[in-house]
# Entry
Amino acid sequence: PLQKWTPRILGKRLIFFRCIIRRTQALLSKYLPVKVEQVICCKLTQLQMDIYQSFCNSDTIRRSLKQTDGNKMSSSSLAAITSLEKMVNHPDLVYPACKERKEGFENASELFPAGYDPERGRLRPELSGKLSILDCLLAVVKSTTTDKVVLVSNYTQTLDMFERLCALRNYG
# Structure
């Protein structure tokens, strides 16, 4: 209830809400062009396929997936799904787990090119089916239109990778 709030808290709350702009879909649609969504199925690169196969054939992953209770997913099952989601975005996202031979990635570090170190080298979009296609799409949009692109991901690591790609290609 509002009566319990002290004047100091109310003052801070008013300042806070003056700084926040809440944009509803109705408001945004007045100022933004029509949104175009397309689903594109991207083929995995050979490196991604090899990491995927190695992960799925891992004894620890096979054991953890068999230990589920009926229809319930275990936390290790969810962790395995998250690892695979990262891997299909780009192998760099699972490289630390491969290097440390974490669960599921015990044999995957040998699959990367010799001398490969994403922390010291430049981003290699060609190692990911998704990032390769995004790279091409962004190049076409930049060279043929004045359109703006909004990239969305549930993972901050993937957003960081998008940022690295844009820096690599000198996009705005």
In short: Residues 96 and 170 are 27 Å apart (CA to CA). The two ends are 47 Å apart (CA to CA). The first helix runs from residue 7 to 19. DSSP finds eight helices and no strands in the chain.
